[in-house]
């Protein structure tokens, strides 16, 4: 309390004492003395202490307000978190959808391209199959014509040989049955053997039947010889176009070892597919008499 306030209190007490009767004058003076003494001696709180109390009160009030608003703040934080999470999920979904759309477009393009390619391949395969069928039909026709020609020649030969004895063979040829055969001593490739037989007015051996083959085996001395059988478009055919009326393959033959065995050798009556460039002896069959 300031000094001016204290003086005002003392002055008021004095004025009141003057307005009372004389009997109370002493009491008023004593009261004045007591009041003055009390006023001057009572310890009043200084300003710093009041400010500290006000600060504590303010802090207590703020703490109360914070505790009161805490649930609202928690709810607000959760709401903000949910919104952010939703936005993240939305962005992720958009990215996935965009990526999926791009991949789907590429897949459609590839499938469309593959579909066109497959269609072209199917057309090529169909054309190839049609060509194969046509070639097979032509081969069958040629084979039938050649077989008819062979039958006619045999019939003519039978008629011409009626009443005639065995026919003698030229030098270096062997007459076996009613045909002449040339057994070479030189070794050449299949193509060279075929060419040499043609130059001798003969053909590289074409076997009419198994009986003819069996008749030749004793004259082969266990050696391998080229015969006129060759693989054409995956089919074994005599070089004159005839289809074999029988076969005599070795066990597990033909096996096309190395992928280049397109010609045939015969040894002791058994056949084996072999590379056409290998050099072997060969057998020519005459076409000038049977």
TrEMBL record:
- List keywords of the entry alphabetically: Coiled coil, Disulfide bond, Membrane, Transmembrane, Transmembrane helix
Chain ranges of the C-type lectin domain: 176-285
Protease among the record's keywords? no
SUPFAM superfamilies tied to this protein: C-type lectin-like
Q: Which InterPro entries match?
A: C-type_lectin-like (IPR001304), C-type_lectin-like/link_sf (IPR016186), C-type_lectin/snaclec_domain (IPR050111), C-type_lectin_CS (IPR018378), CTDL_fold (IPR016187)
Q: Which residues form a coiled coil?
A: 118-162
Q: Where is the signal peptide?
A: none
Q: Which residues cross the membrane?
A: 73-100
Pfam families tied to this protein: Lectin_C
Source taxonomy lineage? Eukaryota, Metazoa, Chordata, Craniata, Vertebrata
- Name of the molecule in the record: C-type lectin domain-containing protein
Superkingdom of the source species = Eukaryota
Species this protein is from: Leptobrachium leishanense (Leishan spiny toad)
């Amino acid at each position: 309390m300031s000094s001016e306030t204290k003086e005002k209190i003392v002055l008021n007490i004095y004025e009141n004492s003057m307005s009372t009767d004389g009997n109370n004058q002493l009491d008023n003076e004593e009261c004045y003395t007591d009041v003055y003494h009390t006023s001057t001696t009572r310890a009043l709180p200084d300003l710093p202490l009041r400010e500290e109390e006000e600060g504590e009160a303010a802090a207590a009030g703020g703490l109360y307000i914070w505790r009161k608003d805490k649930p609202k703040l928690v709810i607000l934080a959760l709401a903000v978190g949910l919104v952010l999470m939703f936005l993240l999920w939305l962005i992720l979904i958009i990215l996935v959808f965009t990526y999926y759309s791009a991949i789907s477009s590429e897949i459609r393009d590839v499938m469309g391209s593959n579909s066109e390619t497959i269609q072209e391949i199917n057309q090529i395969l169909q054309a190839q199959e049609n060509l194969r069928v046509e070639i097979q039909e032509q081969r069958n026709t040629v084979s039938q014509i050649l077989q008819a020609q062979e039958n006619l020649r045999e019939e003519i030969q039978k008629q011409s040989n009626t009443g005639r004895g065995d026919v003698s063979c030229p030098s270096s040829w062997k007459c076996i049955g009613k045909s002449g055969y040339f057994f070479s001593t030189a070794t050449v490739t299949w193509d060279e053997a075929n060419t040499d037989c043609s130059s001798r007015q003969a053909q590289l051996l074409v076997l009419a039947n198994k009986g003819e083959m069996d008749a030749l085996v004793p004259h082969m001395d266990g050696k391998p010889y080229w015969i006129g059988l060759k693989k054409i478009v995956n089919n074994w055919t005599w070089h004159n176009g005839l289809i074999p009326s029988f076969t005599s393959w070795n066990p597990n033959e033909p096996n096309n070892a190395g992928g280049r065995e397109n010609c045939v050798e015969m040894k002791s009556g058994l056949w084996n597919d072999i590379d056409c460039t290998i050099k072997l002896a060969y057998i020519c069959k005459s076409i000038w008499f049977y």
